[in-house]
Design goal:
The structure is a single chain. Helix content is 12%, strand content 26%. By secondary structure, the protein is an alpha+beta fold.
Length: 171
């Protein structure tokens, strides 16, 4: 192998080793909506992968300075690196001492104690809907000439609706 190709190949092999960095699925990004359950209870899961047996902390804080809130959830990654925490449904209260996830938005800071970290901002709780289909669903509505303004209208009139488009076999 030529000398110039050895270094990239070695780097790829090292990156594929068992000591994985802190990794979150793509859905855990800014603007995240976590499912809230019965009567506003928000016992959602946050999960990912890290180095085997790494200590993982998920810190949830209120993004509203008028309603300070912080809670740390701790866990340990499995021997395969998988980890998850379940948020327990206790959240910031409003000025009438009502508790609930609707008093966000929140920020999530995830760290593994080994230098890996992620910060997710503008996290809210609500109803999550999934749409599945064939490759035709990958075409955005705004690409259709007769509906070009639908996306802009929706963003202007329904700002609390969030869209996450996952990649798939078709794109």
């Amino acid at each position: 192998m030529p000398p110039l190709l050895r270094l990239p190949a070695a780097a790829l092999l090292a990156a594929a080793g068992t000591d994985a960095a802190l990794v979150l699925p793509p859905v855990f990004a800014d603007g995240l909506v976590l499912q809230s359950w019965v009567e506003g209870d928000a016992r959602s899961f946050v999960y990912g992968s890290a180095s085997a047996l790494a200590a993982v902390n998920v810190t949830m804080t209120s993004a509203d300075p008028a309603q300070p809130y912080e809670k740390v959830y701790s866990t340990q990654a499995s021997s395969l690196g998988a980890w998850s925490v379940q948020l327990d449904g206790t959240y910031v209260a409003d000025n009438q001492k009502r508790h609930g996830p609707k008093f966000g938005p929140y920020a999530l800071a995830i760290s593994d104690g080994e230098g890996g970290s992620h910060r997710i901002s503008d996290v809210t709780f609500g109803d999550v809907y999934l749409c599945l289909g064939d490759a035709e669903m990958a075409r955005p509505v705004s690409a259709l000439p007769e509906h070009a303004n639908v996306t802009a209208d929706a963003a202007a009139n329904f700002s609390s609706i969030r869209l996450f488009q996952a990649g798939g076999a078709g794109g």
